[in-house]
């Protein structure tokens, strides 16, 4: 049983190191926007303007509400800050997942 946890810890550690390398490459490149980023930003603007529930724009049916809400709350920040905050959340996720699995067991 101990060996299984050790392998799981190594997997999480490898995942975090891989993501840090990707984050550093993204920061070095200076490209913070992905292919779908502009659609999420458009939905975030609708949320900020208060038009999310009254618009006929089809973009809201393609993009979930949660991430644009996060962007609308952090829209005044530099993209670097938003990417950094997302990275912290991503690092915390495996530990949250482990706690959730332990809670369910």
Task: Give a structural overview.
Helix 1 (2-29) packs antiparallel against helix 5 (79-104) and helix 2 packs across helix 4. This protein has 5 helices and no strands. It has 105 residues and is an all-alpha fold. It has helices at 2-29, 37-49, 59-62, 66-73, 79-104.
Helix-strand category: mainly alpha
Q: Which segments are poorly predicted (pLDDT under 50) over 5 or more consecutive residues?
A: none
Distance between the termini: 15 Å
Secondary structure: number of strands: 0
**Overall 3D shape:** globular
| Computed Rg | 18 Å
SS summary, helix count = 5
Helix percent reads over 70%
Beta-strand fraction estimate: under 5%
Largest sheet: none
What is the arithmetic mean of pLDDT?
Answer: 82
The arrangement of helices and strands along the chain is HHHHH
Name the features:
mainly alpha, 105 residues
Compact overview of the structure:
The chain has 105 residues and is an all-alpha fold.
Topology (SSEs and partners):
Blueprint: H1 2-29, H2 37-49, H3 59-62, H4 66-73, H5 79-104
Helix pairs in contact: 1-5, 2-4
